[in-house]
Amino acid sequence: MSHFSSEDEALLQCMLRQLLQSVKEKITGAPSVECAEEILLHLEETDENFHNYEFVKYLRQYISSMLGSVIEEETEKCTSAQNQGEGSGYDTLVQHVTKKTRESKEYREMMHSLKNVMMVVVESLINKFEEDQMRYKEIQRKVKTEQHSSYYTDNCSDSDSSFNQSYTFMNQEQLQLLVERLDPVQPKEVRQEAMQTLCSAPPSDILNCESWANLRKHLATALSDPDSSFSDKVLKFYAKTFSSSPLNMTRELYTSLAKYLEMYFLSEDSYVPTISIGIDISNPDIIRLLKKIRLLNEYQREVPSFWIRHPEKYMEEIMESTLSLLSAKRESSHPVSLDPVYFLALVDLKAVWFKKWMHAYYSRTVVLRLLEKKYKSLIIASVEQCVSYLETCESVVDKTGRFNSFSTLHNGNKQKNFYTGKELQYIYFVHSLSLLGRLLIYKQGRRLFPIQLKNRKDLMSLTDLVVMFTRLIYCAPNCPKTLTVHSGNYSPAGLITDVLGILCERKECATECLYTNTVIEALLQPIHYLLNGTEVHLNSPETTLIHIADILARIAAADDGLSLLLYGGEKPSAMEGGSLRGAHTIVQFTKKLLDEDISVLSGSEMLPVLKGAFIFVCHQMYSTCEGLEVLLPYHLHGSISEAWKKTSLLSERIPTPVAGADCVSSASQESQSFIVLEETLLDDLLNFAATPKGLLLLQNTGTVNECVTFMFNRFTKNLQVCGFEKFGYGAIVSQVAATAAGAVALQSSGFIKALVTELWGVLECGRDDVRVTHPRSTPVDPIDRSCQKSFLALINLLSYPAVYELIGDQAIPNKPEYSLREVPTDIIDIIDRVIIVNTEAKIHSLFNYEQSHIFGLRLLNVLCCDLDTLLLLESQYKVSEVLLDAQRENTIYISETSRDFIIDGLSVERNHILVRINHVGGPTERILPPRILHKGDDPYPWPMFSSYPLPTCYLAEFPRKTDTRQDGDASKLACALNNPEKPLELIENIQRQFCEIMENKPTVMSGTNLAELMEMFVLHLSETPSECYFTSRECEADANAEIKTLSSVQQLGVKMTISYGKHLNLLRENAEDDLCHVIMHCENFLKRQQAVLRTSLRGLQGGYVGFDWFASSVFLIMMGDREKTLNFLHQFSRLLVSAFLWIPRLHSSIHLPVDTAASGIHPIYFCSAHYVEMLLKAELPLVFSAFHMSGFTSSQICQQWLTQCFWNYLDWSEICHYIAICIFLGPDYQIYMCISVFKHLQQEILQHTQTQDLQVFLKEEALHGFQVSDYFKYMENLALTYRPVLLRDMKNIRVQNT
């Protein structure tokens, strides 16, 4: 810039002026000079066009020419240093080059030259500004009125002086003169000129002037000026100020505008049309009024985003001026003119302003306080408008049930210029409905009710208001086409459904507003009429009923709403024998819909949608245990199944649409309708599997395979389960997998293959989309987080019934060679590839051998917690031998006679599993080694082994128990059993004494005392006809039955039982033969009572495929006495409790309905576990929610606990107490026992739900610290509440449910 010419100066001035013109709005909106400077300093961060300005381009080019060589030189120096290992990255390079450049001589010279040049340019620009200002004032004195308007328009352009004119800063004297010239007494030309000047001045100067009060009055007067151009300039000033000034300034302008509008509506001289005349929006007066209302509304919508930064009094002034305006009513004897709220509703139909004001607690409290103390009339007016609209709708419904109020329909393709009185009433109704709906959401808003309406004696409560809304749903018309200029749904029924839907989403709000019998009856009123054949006038029956179904589904989705529908707000026990509740009406109507037995709806195109809507309401109920119990008598599962089969056949018969057709044929539309209905019905059937008993019903329909396939298809597409389900299909998969037929359906659908393939992908292959340059991190957890989801899914899947169906009687491949591309596809492959890794070929086929094998061992550890699964794996694959061999090979040579075990992740896992599977015992009866290493010199102090027996350190000491035969309470109870009293009185007396012992001296119930008392009590019950559930003829043993050899699973179970009994010091040396005799005798005894079933399930092809843990438990209780055990079991088999304690008792039994027996689902699952889930929801809601979120079910773990009589989970003394309370007090105590266990584990369950390993915890961990006696009183309290229902259902297991 050493040769800086006049042309260069002019060019720079032009560039600088362009920059300032582009940012003039930001600068003029700044409240101070300091703020303006701050805006300019951060312009690059806030202006996306910053680098496009010519001045910025010029500066960049100039800097590049002056400093380019310096920057390049420094960059080369730093780059060479980095190549020699001295640098540390790109950021350091930039910082270094910048520092060196700023310290250079060239930089200092450039800055000096640039500063001198810019000082010259800025000084010239300032001089030019002063000349322009003087020229502007001179022109302002000479031009005429027409030129004023034209000149104002030019000032809004990008002309040379427009930027300078927008910076018309004024002092107080100038502002005072401006205020005087705006006085209404001044000539019109003077006021026009003053208004022009006002528009070009910064709003901050104007609002801070000393004469603002007078100026505000003049502006309000100017708004009423008959010259529209002049009043429009005032509005532009208002709009400019609203958008560029802080709240402390704009509030005064807003309140003045609101006050002006309030006075306008109250004035007799103002033109405000009446309701009968309507509104012509082409009328100039209406146009001007609507412009002011819209400006007011736009500010109402924007101000909530920043008023929290200012004192509350500012916000309160805005709110009060608004509510005062909306409450204004002109008092006159003439026809009543429209209130301000009509015009506000025209520009903000759904009251968005009120929604925003009510959103934050900060503003909501002020609004509600003002409504309660001063402006309650606004709420009353809104309610009265809804009442008036309802009365209008009901009064014009003709005999055909059609609404005729909107006779003249508007063509939505043309501009709407006129609103009739009826249309205005509807618009006001929509605004009122939106306002009331938002008000009811909040507690303080609901406290405004009840309210007193005009011409109504009684107060209107919240319930009355909601009932009025429901009446509007089925008597209001469809949306008038006059509202097609708006977007969205504006039909009354749709709007009310949306409002009630929002109320349903908030528990406290729904409880106060919706969860009453009055509201439910109002919703169900048209359904009652249709069921009874009573004539009912509905504008659109299908649409109305769909809206009602939507609301009912939302109510049923919440626990309190579901209880209201099922029990009418009463306790479940009070329901019996009572009147029909909402649920019964809904399911009856749904069955009629499925049968197409409602004449009003026959032939309707929307009938499939209507069916789906009401089945979904039932779906919300029967997917819960308590809902299924209420709906069970209606056999809805059968009706839905039949409807699905019928729809499936119809959809297959419809011809395929012809390709290339110009329009969609009716056949194609019909086909699509049937496909949607078919999928809806399958989904509804699938959700019966949400509960154990519902799964039994689903299997009895024969559609479980189709439902599981449907679920898998949705699962692969990542589709949402339903509108109110947040946790996916996890719980349903867990329920289905707990049964044999369910496991087969999962396999045939492809679900298991997809699961195993996904597991293999994350375990061995890794993600395909990860670049090679970004290697996977080395896992630090035994189960890496990437595999955790698949690990838990496998655990959910592999219950014992599922395991037996998937791998029973199948050998593992054990191939001599495995291809690296060979991916497992089923469970047997997983066992072969990552669990039983016993060959070099398997090891070499794994990319991540240690990680994958640890995964397999962890999975094996969980599987072996189910004793039946353990016996199956041991009998088929000899897993203990495989693990011992692996431990033997994992050693290092020390000497010819000594080898040390290598301690690594795999050997530690194997050691833990070997101890677990070789030694049975409760939490204090065995010691399991940890699976982690300790710090220090001895990281793993636990001895490893490669052959049996176990090291003694893993065997907890169990001293021989002393005989408690002489205990007084036990003797007293035994004497009572021998007294010849009346049977029922004796039983009650025995039960009472037993309860006293369990509460005070639980240790008495053990050893010989327990054995003798159980023998005597069961003998007495078996001789009492009223207590015998199974007849004696059915329970007789066949003395000549052939005693065959035991299966390998039974032999292993016998050895395990004998080992456990000897550890407990309960058995003598030759007890094994006696137990074998007992097991064989029981198998033959029960085989005579098995039905011949036609089924493909492996588990139902012969006898019971698991081990008889109950018979083994009785054998231990009887101290190994074979005769006592057999006599006890024969007598016990006549009792109802035997069906639930003795699992093999009802395997494929003739005592069960044929469909139930063929399903392979045991009563402990569809009855006991079902009621555990139901009681869990009522008694321990946090635990119930934890199960639901985890995707695991309480029924599956309960089935495992109960099947193996809590072996490995409880100490022997507690197992005896569990069996005793069920025998002495009834089979329902089995359910209370499980609930007590969950209550004991509540904190751990919640913790492990957070860590996402709840399944692993429940299956692997023993029940530490749990004692039956500690929870005995709790069980008694549960029995008082639930026993009638539970025992009744347990006795009905022989009743056909289909």
TrEMBL record:
Entry-linked PANTHER family: PROTEIN BROAD-MINDED (PTHR13465:SF3), UPF0183 PROTEIN (PTHR13465)
Annotated TM spans: none
Source organism (scientific name): Podarcis lilfordi
The keyword Ribonucleoprotein appears for this protein: no
Domain BROMI C-terminal Rab TBC-like: 863-1293
Function in brief: Required for high-level Shh responses in the developing neural tube. Together with CDK20, controls the structure of the primary cilium by coordinating assembly of the ciliary membrane and axoneme, allowing GLI2 to be properly activated in response to Shh signaling.
Domain named BROMI middle region: residues: 173-845
Cellular localisation: Cell projection, Cilium; Cytoplasm
Name of this protein: Protein broad-minded
A single Gene Ontology CC term: cytoplasm
Main location group: other
